[in-house]
Q: What sequence folds into this?
């Protein structure tokens, strides 16, 4: 089976160009949908997604984007209540979802150690047609203690895997970070297929690679790209796979 996947931190669909220009805060679902549509992925993992809340800006962003694309299947995984509403990760898909659920990442003992902190989660999705495979989507934190817990939880989910598995998201770590080594050792990094020097953040001049699409050994990566499109502050990351 050929499968195109995308990992995309959408910065809650805020127009990044406007923010760079004059600190304006404009939510634009069409902008994000247009970027996704350009690459026509089968499955998309989204980070920094809002859901319905008290503030007018807190709408069901997962549904808003899925409807614009005509994707029938989606799921939002709440990590925290941020400001005036839920905030977390999401999946949208052309392929029928068998099941999706939210796996909390345990909080570190000292939550404020090492900088800004927020609780995190992993979205786990199961597919079974036309072939069985799982997808794990997450947005790791900034403090080292938070990152260690995130990698540990990902490894626990991978230990019991029974089907081909794709892990993707904004991990907030560059590939040379030792905390990430267990995950990179357990899975294949599609970044090996990116053009040399490809970075994913920030879009106005990418300097670091912190976004990932990793696959289990029973999946063959075919191609990968991370175009520097200034819509969000992160580049979309696309990989073509064979399952």
A:
């Amino acid at each position: 089976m050929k499968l195109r996947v995308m990992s995309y931190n959408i910065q809650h669909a805020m127009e990044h160009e406007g923010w760079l220009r004059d600190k304006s805060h404009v939510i634009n679902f069409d902008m994000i949908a247009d970027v996704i549509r350009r690459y026509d992925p089968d499955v998309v993992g989204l980070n920094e997604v809002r859901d319905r809340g008290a503030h007018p800006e807190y709408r069901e962003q997962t549904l808003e984007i899925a409807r614009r694309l005509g994707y029938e299947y989606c799921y939002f995984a709440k990590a925290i209540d941020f400001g005036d509403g839920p905030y977390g990760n999401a999946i949208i898909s052309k392929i029928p979802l068998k099941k999706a659920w939210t796996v909390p990442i345990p909080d570190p003992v000292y939550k404020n150690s090492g900088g800004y902190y927020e609780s995190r989660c992993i979205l786990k999705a199961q597919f079974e047609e036309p072939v069985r495979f799982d997808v794990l989507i997450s947005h790791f934190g900034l403090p080292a203690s938070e990152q260690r817990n995130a990698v540990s939880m990902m490894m626990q989910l991978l230990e019991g895997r029974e089907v081909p598995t794709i892990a993707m998201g904004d991990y907030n770590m560059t590939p040379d970070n030792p905390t990430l080594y267990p995950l990179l050792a357990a899975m294949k990094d599609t970044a090996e297929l990116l053009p040399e020097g490809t970075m994913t953040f920030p879009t106005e001049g990418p300097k670091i690679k912190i976004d990932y699409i990793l696959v289990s050994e029973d999946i063959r990566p075919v191609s990968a790209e991370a175009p520097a499109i200034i819509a969000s502050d992160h580049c979309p990351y696309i990989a073509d796979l064979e399952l």
In short: The chain has five helices and twelve strands. The helical segments are 16-22, 29-39, 61-69, 144-159, 181-186. The CA atoms of residues 52 and 58 lie 5 Å apart. The mean pLDDT is 95.
